[in-house]
Specification:
With 124 residues, the chain is mostly helical. The chain is 66% helix and 8% strand. β1 (7-11) and β2 (14-18) form a beta hairpin.
């Protein structure tokens, strides 16, 4: 199986190539809402390290999204074995990769929208 391009990341002592989330993560797992909520929590924490945005629910949702992405390149990866070696910092780093990937995708969409508007204006 060919691996999808992605970000190399060390999780639980192993190195993985984490691609972007698959489409079904957005449709079936509400990935966009979860990523936005987690990003807001992380942003709220800035300047006050005592505010920990990673509650049990946030950790579960982050882990779920990380697993959905990793399964694209590692379909045989077993979640119960994978989580045994994880630490909270692994989850923070992993969700950070997914947030950055989402931001890049949104920037591309915005640039395409602006270019489309510019071309429409030039034709008028």
């Amino acid at each position: 199986m060919n691996k999808l391009e992605g970000t190399e990341i060390k999780l639980g002592g192993k190195t993985y190539t984490m691609p972007e989330l698959p489409y079904m993560a957005y449709e079936e797992h509400d990935a966009m809402t979860k990523i936005v909520d987690i990003a807001r929590s992380l942003d709220a924490m800035k300047g006050n390290p005592l505010l920990n945005p990673f509650t049990g629910n946030t950790l579960r949702e982050s882990r779920e999204l990380i697993m959905l992405a990793l399964k694209e390149n590692y379909p045989d990866l077993q979640e119960d074995e994978f989580v045994k070696g994880l630490h909270v910092i692994d989850i923070v780093n992993g969700i950070g990769v997914l947030i950055n990937t989402e931001l890049k995708a949104q920037q591309i969409v915005e640039e395409d929208r602006k270019n489309g508007e510019k071309q429409t204006a030039e034709k008028a």
